[in-house]
Automatic annotation (TrEMBL):
SUPFAM superfamilies: Nucleotide-diphospho-sugar transferases (SSF53448). This is Glycosyl transferase. Keywords: Transferase. Coiled coil: none annotated. It comes from Flavobacterium palustre. Transmembrane segments: none annotated. One of its GO terms (molecular function) is transferase activity. The keyword Hydrolase does not apply.
């Protein structure tokens, strides 16, 4: 069975999320709502949905998301029982009516072959009242292929549009980056465990975007920057083997450019780059790196 876990904090768009759950054409799921000591009590709204789908609500007495959002996700997951598959649904995100139906319809195709399933998606800009085009994916795709598409800004991704096996989650857990920025990206590399990602394009998730969401705010750019640096460095240190040499060089360049967007590189960062360029030696990229180092230390 499928567990849908909602780390709740914001009431503003929550009813749309609940309505989308009530509208599912297949009710074979259970919802677990973990309230992160929110000042906005959802009890009255939840009362309107009793009997419309199966859910458990639990209020945590301390706020954890402000310290570590991934740890709040994880304590919300502990509310679930013996479900084999998990979805973490944002409290401002919406399921298309047939998301659960298509999950079970296509289950025989993917269940023994993957640990990660994703749906097509749209972005809802609540501030402007706009909905984006539909983002679809190859039905079968490796995590490295997906990473490259996202690196080149040919696609997008958010936590809510994924379903993952509980066994893969328990083995890996989430990387604890600031604001959980890129924590989902790292999860799909780790949770997939060398298996492909399976895409269901026949059902859509609608991902909320506003000045209340982490992705839509501009007062957290320093934390996002720190998270991005840590993410790309971890990719290079732990998972470079899943990429080709050409792809590794592209990731190295991305990491260097990312640092330079805010400041000059530190000595240890140049040394890190030198070591990785040497391991993936190609004369022109290595020569260009040496030139950039000379310019930096003039």
């Amino acid at each position: 069975m499928l567990a849908i876990v909602i780390p709740y904090y914001k009431l503003t768009f929550f009813e749309a999320t609940l309505q989308s759950l009530a509208s599912q054409t297949d009710k074979r799921f259970k919802v677990y709502i973990g309230d992160d000591a929110s000042p906005e009590n959802p009890i009255d709204i939840l009362g309107n949905y009793k009997g419309k789908f199966d859910f458990i609500y639990h209020r945590f007495e301390t706020n954890l998301g402000g310290v570590s959002l991934t740890q709040h996700w994880e304590r919300c997951i502990t509310l679930s029982y013996d479900e084999e598959w998990l979805m973490i649904l944002g409290d401002d995100d919406v399921l298309g009516d047939n998301v659960v139906e298509e999950f079970y319809k296509q289950y025989p195709v993917f269940y023994s072959n993957v640990n990660v399933v994703r749906f097509s998606s749209k972005l809802i800009d609540y501030s402007l009242g706009k909905i984006s085009e539909v983002f679809t994916h190859p039905v079968w795709e490796s995590s490295s292929e997906f990473f490259q598409r996202k690196l080149k800004e040919k696609t997008r991704s958010s936590l809510s549009e994924y379903v993952f096996s509980k066994s893969s989650y328990l083995k890996c857990k989430f990387c604890d980056y600031p604001l959980a920025w890129h924590s989902d990206d790292m999860a799909w590399i780790e949770f997939s465990q060398d298996k492909q990602i399976y895409s269901i394009n026949e059902a859509q998730m609608q991902i909320g975007f506003s000045n209340l969401s982490i992705s839509g705010r501009n007062d957290n750019l320093d934390s996002k920057y720190s998270a991005s640096l840590a993410f790309y460095k971890n990719i290079l240190k732990k998972y470079s083997q899943i990429f080709s040499k050409k792809e590794r060089l592209e990731i190295l360049m991305k990491y260097e450019i990312l640092i330079k967007q805010s400041r000059k590189l530190y000595r240890e960062e140049w040394l890190f780059l030198i070591s990785h360029y040497f391991r993936n030696f190609s004369i022109i990229p290595f020569a260009k790196l040496c030139r950039r180092i000379l310019i930096a230390y003039r």
